[in-house]
Each structure stands twice: as structure tokens, then as C-alpha cells.
Amino acid sequence: MARSALKFDDATHAALLAAARDADAAHPHNNPAFLDAFLADAWQAAHRIYGAQTYLRFVAQAGVTRRPSAGTVQKAIVRARAIYEVPAVPTFGSSLSVGQSIWAQKLEQNLARAMTLLDATPDARNPAGNGTTDAADAIRRVQHLERENLELRARLAQMTVAAAYAREALGETLTVFAPQAMQHAGSQGRQGV
Fold it and tell me: What are the residues whose beta carbons fall under 8 Å from the beta carbon of 42, sequence distance 6 or more?
């Protein structure tokens, strides 16, 4: 059974089209940077990551002349998901799949670690014993940790992209200079004999 077409309200649709045009203007010669900027703005507009064909459709509707390949768009989607999406929380009483079981274990470990860190801070104990203040403080600290986690994920994604660009540049450099170096070494070897 086919899925129904995605529907966007006028404001979201306009924001997604503007995001594509803005990203194109900001990065006219760099598809990965264009897509990263477009998906970041699209996330701000829709608070969701869509599939490659949806983004390609918006690029075309926005009047952007470039047409990145579906593979290039998919790589950008993977980077965006690493930054913006949080894994789905399993519902109470549902059976856990292997991935969700691993997720649940990681969540349990992270909560235990957070509780240990919270207990280790000097102001962790509320002398008045006010449960409401303790809960509010814990929520504030967890939100702070979540923001830090999101910032670290964004930095990791940026570093991953930078590493990919560096790897590509190194490959191009080796492709250009390696034959010349071999030819130079070969000519040096003949002269020394």
C-alpha cells in the first residue's frame, strides 16, 4: 500500500522553499555544504527529517538549478539525523527490538552516570529536602546535559564532514602527484646506475 503524499501548511512550505534558495545562494559551488545548510534550515522549519526525494522535490520547486544526486542527499540526511534526531522512545509494555534493547541499555547507563555526576556535585544535596526543588533542579541539569550532548553531536558531524573533505583532497593530491613522483624516482634510478 502506497503512503499518502506529505502535506505542508503554507508557512512551512514557504519556509522550506526559502531554505533551499538561501542555502543555494550561500553555497553555490559546494553540494555537501548546500545540503547541510538546507537541511538545517528545513529542520528549523519542520522539526523533522524527510527522505531524499522530498528534499530534491523542494530544491526543484524552489527554482534551484543544481540537482545533487540522491546519494549525496542521503549522505546529508545521515549527517542531519546524527545532529537533530533523537531515537524513538519505546512505549511502555511494548516488546523491545534488538536496537531498542540496546537503546534502553544505553539510556539506563547514561541515567546512572548522570545520577552519579549529580550526586558528586557539592550542591547536589538540598538541605531543606524539598522534593519539588530537587526535581526541578534535576530537570534543569538533564536539559543542560542534553544541550551539551546536542552541541557535541553537531561538532562531531562537522568534524566528520571536514575529515571526509580532507580525505577526498588527499586522494586527489595523491592521484595527481604519485605518478609524477614515481616517474621522477624512476629517472633518478636510471641515472645512478
Answer: 16, 19, 50, 55, 58
